[in-house]
Design goal:
globular, single chain, 5 strands
């Protein structure tokens, strides 16, 4: 497991939460119908160990402007989601952080974050972005303290697998995507957009891509991925959830960065390679 890095970057590329609303019911239905139902590949074929590491480093660049996974990161970025924390930006208003803290408390009772469970539950139940009841400074300090414990870092890794990586790989299986880069792009989109069928969710993006060019087996994987880049960029610029627009519109280079890797021909996600994002180049290795 990667050693926890305590550096707190100044630039945060946080994913807004994809939300579902009544006006999006048609998009939900289209997404459900547009994703082909085919068998899943064996999980050992999803990504090799190196490819998974490269994908994680890439996403860490997008999330925290560093290739080092930021287990200790914790900050209120004032996007209406309370405190954003950890390697995948677990937030206090939507149950993300609650699930992490509950899982950690099951392993390490009496940890520094355990006392915050009742308030995290209340915030998740109400969808509140308020941090007054945590209180915020104490919660951030406790998260950073917990990140010194390898068990807490492992819990974050497990939560990322269960809630983002594995479902994204299953979606890639259903689509019949084979290239590691295309799979890494779906993984990144799952973390930023969420996995649901709403207009802004991953399945919504997949459905609109399929509508435009057909499924990958019909369009060809390269053409399909290019269309997915365009659909996702448009969604970041014009999301259905207007509350996310200011934050998401700043993150379009997140998609452009992966497209640059595709343009270089590195669909196999072979390393080391250079990733340029938001004006800075990083070595993925």
């Amino acid at each position: 497991m990667t050693t926890p890095a305590m550096t707190i970057p100044t630039t945060r590329r946080r994913r807004p939460l994809a939300r579902r609303g009544p006006a999006l019911a048609a998009a939900v239905l289209v997404a459900t119908l547009a994703v082909p139902a085919i068998g899943h590949a064996d999980s050992s074929e999803w990504l090799t160990g190196d490819q998974r590491r490269y994908a994680d480093q890439m996403i860490s660049v997008f999330e925290n402007s560093t290739t080092e996974l930021q287990y200790a990161y914790a900050e209120n970025i004032h996007d209406g989601r309370g405190v954003t924390a950890g390697r995948a930006g677990f937030t206090t208003n939507d149950g993300d952080a609650l699930k992490v803290v509950r899982a950690y408390t099951a392993v390490v009772p009496g940890n520094p974050l355990a006392a915050f469970v009742p308030e995290l539950q209340r915030l998740a139940d109400t969808g509140s972005g308020s941090t007054d009841g945590l209180p915020e400074a104490d919660y951030i300090a406790a998260w950073q303290q917990a990140a010194q414990d390898p068990a807490f870092c492992q819990v974050q890794d497990d939560q990322v697998d269960q809630r983002y990586f594995n479902p994204a790989m299953q979606d890639a299986d259903q689509l019949g995507l084979h290239t590691p880069l295309a799979r890494a792009e779906l993984y990144d989109a799952a973390i930023q957009h969420g996995l649901d069928s709403s207009y802004d969710g991953l399945l919504g993006l997949i459905a609109r891509t399929n509508q435009q060019v057909g499924t990958p087996d019909r369009a060809g994987e390269t053409a399909w991925l290019g269309a997915f880049f365009a659909v996702r960029t448009d969604d970041l610029t014009n999301p259905a959830n207007s509350a996310t627009q200011a934050e998401w519109s700043k993150s379009v280079d997140r998609v452009a960065a992966v497209k640059r890797v595709a343009d270089s021909g590195n669909y196999a996600l072979t390393g080391p390679y250079t990733l340029t994002a938001f004006g800075t180049s990083y070595t993925i290795q």
